[in-house]
């Protein structure tokens, strides 16, 4: 029976998440040479090539992709076994997620956190990026996943998000008329970017449903009552991107970052779990300099 080296499995998962031997070495506090040796040891144990590496690309092989989920389960089981050797102490972890950021990955993220540390009580707060930033610096939350504004705020970059103008296919807007815009809050950073872009383009605006909350905004847009700005992956079902149809200005992409001031080992491990789960759903685009939303999400 094959016996796997847990440390080597951890090295493989880290390389798979970061798609970089250099970053994996930095994360694990070791050298590229050391993680290469551990990966080769694991590949020898399983008799399969798990990572394909070229001078410009690091990616999973077909066997590596199939092994990734079982590898995570092995590491989670190992961590639970080690934790079981000492009395579990109740812990709390408060995480803020910006409303323009959180999507389908949130259940996976929470499930991964629970599997990593069953004794962890997870508190999740959904709010605008600016409000979460204030809460983070006040110490009200332990970590936050938010949009990076033009203020150059610190944080570990997770991915780049793209935004567009969305409405139902039958939504009507005539040139020269005020644009009916649904927005969740006057302080919303995405709304501010959108209104500045409209002002620069000379497009008049009438704000509808202002302050009704992010879910109500999505409902208003899905009902055909207004248009609004959404991440291209979070637009309401049944809506389309309408910037070309109505001559609306292109919106810049936004970096999503993780903020945390935690330093103890268990909390840092939880943060790595968050980063891993998030990046699985948000792979960085090949061209990080793109300043408009991808062409495939635009209405044809």
From TrEMBL:
Protein keywords: DNA-binding, Transcription, Transcription regulation
Gene3D superfamilies (alphabetical): Periplasmic binding protein-like II (3.40.190.10), Winged helix-like DNA-binding domain superfamily/Winged helix DNA-binding domain (1.10.10.10)
Domain (HTH lysR-type): residue spans on this chain: 4-61
Source superkingdom: Bacteria
UniProt function note: NodD regulates the expression of the nodABCFE genes which encode other nodulation proteins. NodD is also a negative regulator of its own expression. Binds flavonoids as inducers.
PANTHER family named in the record: HTH-TYPE TRANSCRIPTIONAL REGULATOR LRHA-RELATED, TRANSCRIPTIONAL REGULATOR
Family note: Belongs to the LysR transcriptional regulatory family.
Annotated protein name in UniProt: LysR family transcriptional regulator
The species this protein was found in: Bradyrhizobium quebecense
């Amino acid at each position: 029976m094959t016996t796997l080296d847990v440390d080597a499995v951890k090295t493989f998962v880290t390389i798979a998440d970061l798609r970089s031997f250099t970053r994996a070495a930095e994360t694990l506090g070791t050298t590229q040479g050391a993680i290469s040796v551990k990966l080769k040891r694991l590949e020898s144990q399983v008799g399969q090539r798990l990572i394909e590496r070229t001078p410009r690309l690091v990616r999973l092989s077909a066997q590596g992709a199939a092994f990734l989920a079982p590898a995570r389960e092995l590491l989670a089981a190992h961590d639970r076994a080690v934790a079981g050797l000492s009395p579990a102490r109740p812990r709390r972890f408060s995480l803020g997620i910006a409303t323009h950021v959180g999507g389908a990955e949130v259940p996976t993220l929470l499930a991964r956190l629970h599997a990593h540390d069953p004794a962890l009580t997870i508190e999740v707060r959904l709010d605008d990026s600016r409000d979460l930033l204030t809460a983070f610096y006040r110490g009200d939350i332990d970590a936050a996943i938010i949009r990076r504004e033009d203020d150059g705020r610190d944080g570990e970059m997770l991915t780049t998000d793209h935004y567009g103008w969305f409405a139902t296919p039958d939504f009507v807007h005539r040139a020269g008329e005020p644009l009916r815009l649904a927005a969740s809050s006057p302080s919303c950073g995405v709304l501010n970017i959108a209104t500045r872009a409209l002002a620069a383009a000379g497009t008049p605006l009438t704000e509808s449903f202002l302050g009704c909350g992010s879910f109500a905004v999505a409902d208003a847009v899905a009902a055909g009552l207004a248009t609004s700005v959404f991440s291209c992956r979070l637009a309401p079902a049944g809506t389309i991107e309408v910037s070309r149809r109505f001559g609306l200005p292109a919106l810049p992409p936004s970096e999503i970052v993780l903020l945390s001031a935690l330093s103890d080992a268990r909390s840092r491990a939880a943060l790595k779990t968050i980063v891993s789960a998030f990046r699985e759903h948000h792979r960085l685009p090949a061209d990080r300099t793109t300043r408009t939303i991808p062409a495939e999400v635009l209405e044809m």
